[in-house]
Amino acid sequence: MARSQRPPAPRRGVTLVELLVALVVAAVGLLALSGSGTQSWRRRREADAAIHATALARLRVERLAASCATSTASIAHPDGLAAWWRGARAGGALLIEAGVSWPTTRGRDSVALHGSRWCAP
Asked: Is residue 118 very low, low, confident or very high in pLDDT (cuts 50, 70, 90)?
């Protein structure tokens, strides 16, 4: 009597090599995520500084325009911001300039605002 040959049963589970490859792929993915998270945090911090600097310059322009006073000054803030402003008369107009610079990872960045207002002589 001849024995019937059965095909071998498929193996179940994963091999050690497959497991190691999966772990390496997962580790590379996690490292990429952590790197992009750090970069996005740094960019957000720089964007927050730009928003703060712009608000500071706008506030200075508004104060000079409200007072119609001529003034020139600069100030350094403890967080690395450096602000300057100038209000000068040109006839009956007050010409206003204000700017702020702040540190970034690539050096310094800055914003400058210019405006004018009619002020009675």
From this structure: very high
Please give the Cα distance from 115 to 34 (Å, whole number): 44
Q: How many CA atoms lie within 13 A of 82 on its CB side?
A: 7
User: 117 pairs with which residues across the strands?
Assistant: 94
Q: What is the DSSP string of 93-107?
A: EEEEEEEEEEEETTE
SS3 state of residue 114: strand
If you average pLDDT over residues 98-111, what whole number do you get? 93
DSSP β-bridge partners for residue 72: 86
pLDDT digits (tens, 9 = 90+) for 24-67: 999 998 888 887 888 888 889 889 989 999 999 999 999 999 98
Q: Where are the alpha helices (DSSP H) in 1-121?
A: 16-67
What size, in residues, is the chain?
Answer: 121
Q: Is the pTM above the cut of 0.90?
A: no
- Using alpha carbons, list the distances in angstroms from residue 34 to 9, 27, 39, 44: 43, 11, 9, 15
